[in-house]
């Protein structure tokens, strides 16, 4: 398989407000940058219990996005027109795997500094959620939990369909959230993926839907995710 030569910019790092005891990685969606995820990070940093968390916001490469007529766009991997019923042959596996390896390398750097995998969590919005899910279920060490917002979770679908042996951790705690009014990623698609994950042995997946919420992050959603993070990290 060809190797991706895309350039991954340095991530944005927001240091813990107190003693650093955990690290959370926050991945953006297509056409976004780390700036678009800072609102969520700032909201969570207001929670007194989360002040010991270091936040790392990886930045995707800028690629020629097929779905946007080849326009240079920030994305973790290429998409064509819609990501429905993808198979391995029609999916940008090279970039998916490269992006997962990039995030995994950042996690490993945190581990090298003394933060165990159980004190690491992953958050992803839209396409960033797909990368978060792929990293969490396939990396060697088990992370503390995963928050997925407004995502098709493409990597999970691909693994279930064509690479089932790649999924190492089927009992990781997932918080999956979606807006009822999402017109970019219909809630039915995310629910279908949730249903398939619930069939995994030891599945620990929670489903959260929010009325009057489109393809965006909402205040109630962020508040619920904050509680999930606090519980998973025992803060």
UniProtKB/TrEMBL annotation:
Annotated signal sequence range: none
Domain Phospholipase/carboxylesterase/thioesterase intervals: 11-230
Q: Where is the chain membrane-spanning? A: none
Swiss-Prot/TrEMBL keywords: Fatty acid metabolism, Hydrolase, Lipid metabolism, Serine esterase
Supply the name of the protein.
Acyl-protein thioesterase 1
Q: Which GO terms describe its biological process?
A: fatty acid metabolic process
EC numbers for this chain: 3.1.2.22
User: Into which EC class is this enzyme placed?
Assistant: hydrolase
Q: Which Pfam families match?
A: Abhydrolase_2
Its source organism is Ophiocordyceps australis
Any one Gene Ontology MF annotation carried by this entry is: carboxylic ester hydrolase activity
- Gene Ontology cellular component terms for the protein in this record: cytoplasm
Reactions performed catalytically: S-hexadecanoyl-L-cysteinyl-[protein] + H2O = L-cysteinyl-[protein] + hexadecanoate + H(+)
| Biological role | Hydrolyzes fatty acids from S-acylated cysteine residues in proteins with a strong preference for palmitoylated G-alpha proteins over other acyl substrates. Mediates the deacylation of G-alpha proteins such as GPA1 in vivo, but has weak or no activity toward palmitoylated Ras proteins. Has weak lysophospholipase activity in vitro; however such activity may not exist in vivo.
Protein family per UniProt: Belongs to the AB hydrolase superfamily. AB hydrolase 2 family.
């Amino acid at each position: 398989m060809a190797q991706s030569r895309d350039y991954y910019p340095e991530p944005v790092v927001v240091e813990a407000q107190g003693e650093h005891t955990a690290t959370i990685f926050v991945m953006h969606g297509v056409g976004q940058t780390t700036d678009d995820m800072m609102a969520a990070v700032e909201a969570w940093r207001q929670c007194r219990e989360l002040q010991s968390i270091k936040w790392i916001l990886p930045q995707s490469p800028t690629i020629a996005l097929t779905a946007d007529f080849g326009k240079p766009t920030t994305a973790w991997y290429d998409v064509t027109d819609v990501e429905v019923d993808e198979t391995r042959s029609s999916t940008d596996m090279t970039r998916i795997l490269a992006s997962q390896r990039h995030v995994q390398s950042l996690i490993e750097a945190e581990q090298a500094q003394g933060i165990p995998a159980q004190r690491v969590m992953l958050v992803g919005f839209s396409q960033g959620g797909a990368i978060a899910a792929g990293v969490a279920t396939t990396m060697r060490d088990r992370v503390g939990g995963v928050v997925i917002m407004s995502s098709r979770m493409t990597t999970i679908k691909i693994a279930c369909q064509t690479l089932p042996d790649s999924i190492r951790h089927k009992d990781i705690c997932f918080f999956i959230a979606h807006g009822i009014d999402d017109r970019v990623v219909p809630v039915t698609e995310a629910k279908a993926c949730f249903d398939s994950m619930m069939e995994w042995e030891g599945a620990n997946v929670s489903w959260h839907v929010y009325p009057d919420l489109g393809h965006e992050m909402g205040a109630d959603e962020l508040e619920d995710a904050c509680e999930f993070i606090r519980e998973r990290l025992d803060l």
